[in-house]
Amino acid sequence: xxxxxxxxKELDENVEYEERESEFDLTDE
Amino acid sequence: xxxxxxxxxxxxxxxxxxxGVYRSLIHGRGLFCLRDIEAGEMVIEYAGEVIRSILTDKxxxxxxxxxxxxxxxxxxxxxxxxxxxxGNAARFINHSCDPNCYSRVxxxxxxxxxxxxxxxRILSGEELTYDYKFPFEEDKIPCTCGSRKCRKFLN
Amino acid sequence: TVLLALHDRASQLxxxxxRLAVTGEKGYSTVRATHSVTKGTxxxxxxxxxxxxxxxxxxxWGQDYANLQAPLGYDKFGYSWRSKKGTTFHESVGKHYxxxxxxxxTLGFMxxxxxxx
Lengths: 29, 155, 117
Prior knowledge:
The complex is a heterotrimer of chains A (29), B (155) and C (117). With 155 residues, chain B is of the alpha+beta class.
């Protein structure tokens, strides 16, 4: 079933998302 | 009678052999039982990317803009498991107003996990479903579970 | 005495015992001071004691409704100055302001509000 979505990654367990410094930004400088 | 943490450790190994994703006549795709499961047994963890709640709106907008269906499950006030792009087979479990499973947030060794449990004895070949318990909203989403106890709307 | 607030902050931030220092980790979140201002001219300073590789700060002035689980400057209720590249942020839009700042620097923030409301 993961073949349906090429960008999909199958996990065995939860992974914690690591936020980027710019995570909340609409535009930088 | 094993403690929760031990049962959870075994779950990672066993769920791969006890459930699988197959075509569902009602919903297109669904999670199905590959062996008989006893009432109260842990079925599978709803695994995915653990994100802070504040990020959900932005992610939902992004997925909608790309036509990607959203698979998110709230853990608590602060965190959500987003299984849209990274997850396991549990993301395919469908809703039913008369389900055979239920979900619980269980804390194991300091980390919270969403675990799907069997509500009753489930036989091999049955589709697994649980009650999504969507919050009440004005804009209704029709329910297609087809059960006799169907509440007609998901929300 | 103006201190970092214990009950007006994102709970994951670590506040020092003297309530004059804060340490964060992972994603951005916000802590406010115990006192607010509504008119006149006010100024405060902060020193960056430690800034490990990959970390950053956004400091400034914020209103009551600013979201504390986001960096200051995320919404219309806050104005911030970022350590990385010295960018200012308001409503998540960054504008160039100064070179970046880092460990050892002391930053000052002045607000000028009308005297009458």
